[in-house]
Design goal:
The protein is α+β, with helices and mostly antiparallel strands. It is about 60% helix and about 15% strand. It is elongated, with a radius of gyration of 28 Å.
Length: about 260
């Protein structure tokens, strides 16, 4: 492994912590971006951000992600890969770095803190993209729910089994917990608090990838799914209650008949 690292990276590995845990790693690639070394940032949420690293070198680097990446169950990630590409330019004449129209303008290629701030925003966006894909799959699974609700209203029975309904409710709950509790998608990274000078470029990145808007949309879609499942579950419960009432009425009728027979005998 050390030989492999030595062949891919140049210099020491920089660690950035969040509390007692390592939140990000930075290494310089031996591949060049013009006359400069490329940069690689590994994040504990499973994302990797490459700066000026050739495509052929990225695959080897991503294999090492599994040595550092977070518990995928915790952050709701799987083996699927989400990729976002942005153009990057270096212009020493600008006052400070900025991010606009999918183009990242840097004043200094080796300003690691600015690169880290932008990389955090891109990593959060990538993590949210995975959640968006998960929700798309959940919506597809819930495709029968509207018809099931209609069946309940018309025929007092559902085309969706109770077991499948419970499974969908469990999946919905897991996604909501992963997005809103377990993940730190909307949290400002520690580097932004520690180094206020990098906050503007981080916020520009967050705005450019529409992180907050997409997060709101994700929760709005989850709320719609939740409402549909609650309606169907309520219909199921009402049907169970209605059937139970019929059983009770039947038992009472049988008891009355037995009492009448005893009386006449």
């Amino acid at each position: 492994l050390k030989a492999r690292l030595d062949s891919l990276y140049d210099g020491d590995v920089r660690k950035y912590t969040k509390g007692s845990k390592i939140d990000a790693l930075h290494v310089q690639s031996k591949a060049h971006y013009g006359s400069e070394r490329g940069h690689i940032f590994y994040f504990s949420n499973g994302a990797t951000v490459f700066w000026g690293v050739p495509e052929e070198d990225r695959e080897e680097s991503k294999a090492l992600l599994r040595r550092f990446g977070a518990d995928r169950k915790t952050v709701g990630m799987n083996e699927d890969h989400k990729r976002h590409d942005f153009e990057c330019q270096v212009d020493p004449s600008i006052d400070k770095a900025f991010f606009k129209d999918d183009v990242i303008e840097l004043k200094d290629w080796n300003n690691i803190l600015e690169l880290l701030a932008v990389s955090y925003g891109l990593a959060q966006s990538t993590q949210l993209s995975l959640f968006e894909t998960t929700i798309d799959g959940l919506i597809e699974k819930c495709g029968d729910v509207p018809q099931a609700i209609a069946d309940h209203s018309i025929m007092n029975k559902s085309s969706l089994s109770v077991a499948k309904l419970k499974k969908l409710v469990a999946e919905l709950l897991e996604v909501r917990v992963n997005i809103n509790i377990r993940s730190d998608i909307l949290d400002k990274p520690k580097i932004v608090w520690d180094v206020p000078d990098v906050e503007p470029i981080y916020m520009q990145c967050i705005e450019e990838v529409e992180l907050y808007k997409r997060h709101e949309l994700v929760n709005a879609r989850l709320e719609i799914i939740k409402e549909m499942l609650e309606i169907l579950n309520s219909e199921h419960q009402n049907r169970i209650g209605h059937n139970l009432e019929k059983y009770i009425i039947g038992l009472i009728a049988v008891e009355i008949m037995i009492s009448i027979m005893h009386f006449w005998s």
